[in-house]
Amino acid sequence: xxxxxxxxxxxxxxxxxxxxxxxxxxxxxxxxxxxxxxxxxxxxxxxxxxxxxxxxxxxxxxxxxxxxxxxxxxxxxxxxxxxxxxxxxxxxxxxxxxxxxxxxxxxxxxxxxxxxxxxxxxxxxxxxxxxxxxxxxxxxxxxxxxxxxxxxxxxxxxxxxxxxxxxxxxxxxxxxxxxxxxxxxxxxxxxxxxxxxxxxxxxxxxxxxxxxxxxxxxxxxxxxxxxxxxxxxxxxxxxxxxxxxxxxxxxxxxxxxxxxxxxxxxxxxxxxxxxxxxxxx
Length: 281
What we know:
The chain is an alpha+beta fold. The protein folds into 3 domains: 3-106, TATA-Binding Protein, CATH 3.30.310.20; 119-223, Endonuclease III, domain 1 (Orthogonal Bundle), CATH 1.10.340; 234-277, no CATH class. Helices cover 44% and strands 15% of the residues. The chain contains 13 helices and 7 strands. Strands 1-5-4-3-2 form a 5-stranded antiparallel β-sheet, with helices on one face. Strands 6-7 form a two-stranded antiparallel sheet. A hairpin with a 4-residue loop joins β2 (31-34) and β3. The radius of gyration is 19 Å and the shape is globular. The relative contact order is 0.12.
């Protein structure tokens, strides 16, 4: 099969590496990050065919997607996983200019997150990493990906049918995800049966899924463009307590601090905690 390269314009400032490393999805199938090339690869099963697509940043204002010549959805898939369809990020980045702890956001092109192609991929992964240290979550998720097909050294993220077929016992034993196996199996059954649909990415949709709590639902909805609600968790508390000196920080404290950013207050809160951990603020 012939391979072609398709240029994709991006709004500066845009950084492929910032998107990839915004959180840990790059370490989990079906993604692979080739650091020497600055290339993100991904394997998908499209209409029964296994498709590998990759993307590099050729210029500050341009990505290049490499894909099979007859893979007509490759560019759209890459735009989706790189959050290029999320509106308002440019304005949010500019609003961070001059901010005492978030000025780095505009300087580095931060604000977009690597995500899956649909609600199923992101929700099913989120169920598995709840209350796990990230290194352990990566091992669990990549083990679970073995339920999906493999091609060129990559595994597809399994479909709901593939997880249902393996069964809860296999999910628990092979993935080593403990009690989460029950939620993952139930979620797979519900997607298979049409209770949830792959395009349903609202916060209320995620909250209605088994194993997804309010903070995770807000985080997942944010990845799909709805940052109106803060995902207030232990990392946010630690940032407000240890950096800002609040003894017992609450959600209300965070809302006061980040309310300035309006519909992007959840993103501002998340990036502030991330920047603090990475030494940016």
